[in-house]
């Protein structure tokens, strides 16, 4: 089954695997026989949707997913494009479905509580699906490497968002401290508050400097295929950036007694 690249009228989605799901592909001549199940996630904000000929946004034309084509471990994983054909069954999960099934409760631990964020989850089952070998992305049993290289750019998006919101927390905290009076003087005049603001600013500036360094590296080698320090730096920077945001948001919320919505949506 060929993908129509000119018209661009096909829609695809990336499937993910959790501990109780997975796909196994066995070779059958020029085809693979795929069996197993996966979760398909689709995020969108507010009323923003992808215009597509199908009304059900969980029913995609193609699924991009990792499958087990070789031995156990990372060296036996391939990345495959699976078309929606006979044997592919997807079920849209809602809140009631996930409450009734303990396996589906995993997705409540994502911690996503933004008011405008919508999350659609589909449980996709593959039963004896025949997929041509040309639908393998890259080389066979090299899919894990492709996934890891792709994580670098995804993590950078999370990093920049975390550093940006941490900076907003510092700005909002300083603005609030200048307007709130306690014990006859502005809050910012108290030494302990100035220490908190200085610590927030220190962590944000350190994280921002690290971002500048990694971005400069990725301009020369976007996927970190040559410079092996890029995946390491991106992973460490993600930890640093998210911990910085966690600290700044906690100080802004509890020290200034602001609502959680003010922290998540400062503007």
Automatic annotation (TrEMBL):
<dbReference type="GO" id="GO:0033539">
    <property type="term" value="P:fatty acid beta-oxidation using acyl-CoA dehydrogenase"/>
</dbReference>
<dbReference type="InterPro" id="IPR009100">
    <property type="entry name" value="AcylCoA_DH/oxidase_NM_dom_sf"/>
</dbReference>
<dbReference type="Pfam" id="PF00441">
    <property type="entry name" value="Acyl-CoA_dh_1"/>
</dbReference>
<dbReference type="InterPro" id="IPR036250">
    <property type="entry name" value="AcylCo_DH-like_C"/>
</dbReference>
<comment type="similarity">
    <text>Belongs to the acyl-CoA dehydrogenase family.</text>
</comment>
<dbReference type="GO" id="GO:0003995">
    <property type="term" value="F:acyl-CoA dehydrogenase activity"/>
</dbReference>
<keyword id="KW-0560">Oxidoreductase</keyword>
<feature type="domain" description="Acyl-CoA dehydrogenase/oxidase C-terminal">
    <location>
        <begin position="141"/>
        <end position="250"/>
    </location>
</feature>
<dbReference type="InterPro" id="IPR046373">
    <property type="entry name" value="Acyl-CoA_Oxase/DH_mid-dom_sf"/>
</dbReference>
<dbReference type="InterPro" id="IPR050741">
    <property type="entry name" value="Acyl-CoA_dehydrogenase"/>
</dbReference>
<protein>
    <submittedName>
        <fullName>Acyl-CoA dehydrogenase</fullName>
    </submittedName>
</protein>
<dbReference type="InterPro" id="IPR009075">
    <property type="entry name" value="AcylCo_DH/oxidase_C"/>
</dbReference>
<dbReference type="GO" id="GO:0005737">
    <property type="term" value="C:cytoplasm"/>
</dbReference>
<keyword id="KW-0285">Flavoprotein</keyword>
<keyword id="KW-0274">FAD</keyword>
């Amino acid at each position: 089954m060929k993908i129509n690249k000119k018209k661009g009228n096909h829609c695809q989605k990336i499937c993910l695997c959790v501990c109780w799901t997975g796909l196994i592909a066995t070779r059958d001549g020029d085809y693979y026989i795929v069996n197993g199940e996966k979760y398909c996630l689709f995020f969108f904000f507010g009323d923003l949707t992808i215009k597509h000929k199908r009304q059900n946004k969980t029913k995609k034309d193609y699924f991009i997913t990792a499958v087990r084509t070789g031995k156990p471990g990372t060296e036996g994983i391939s990345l495959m494009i699976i078309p929606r054909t006979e044997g592919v069954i997807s079920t849209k999960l809602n809140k009631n479905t996930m409450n009734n099934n303990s396996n589906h409760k995993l997705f409540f631990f994502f911690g996503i509580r933004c008011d405008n964020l919508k999350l659609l989850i589909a449980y996709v089952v593959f039963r004896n699906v025949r997929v041509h070998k040309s639908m393998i992305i890259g080389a066979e049993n090299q899919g894990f490497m492709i996934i890891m290289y792709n994580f670098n750019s995804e993590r950078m998006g999370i990093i920049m968002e975390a550093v940006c919101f941490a900076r907003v927390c510092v700005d909002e905290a300083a603005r609030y401290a200048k307007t709130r009076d306690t014990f006859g003087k502005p809050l910012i005049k108290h030494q302990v508050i100035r220490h908190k603001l200085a610590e927030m600013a220190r962590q944000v500036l350190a994280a921002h400097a690290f971002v500048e360094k990694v971005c400069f590296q990725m301009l020369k080698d976007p996927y970190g295929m040559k410079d092996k320090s890029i995946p390491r730096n991106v992973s460490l920077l993600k930890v640093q950036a998210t911990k910085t945001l966690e600290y700044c948001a906690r100080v802004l919320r509890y020290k200034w007694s602001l609502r959680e919505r003010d922290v998540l949506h400062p503007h």
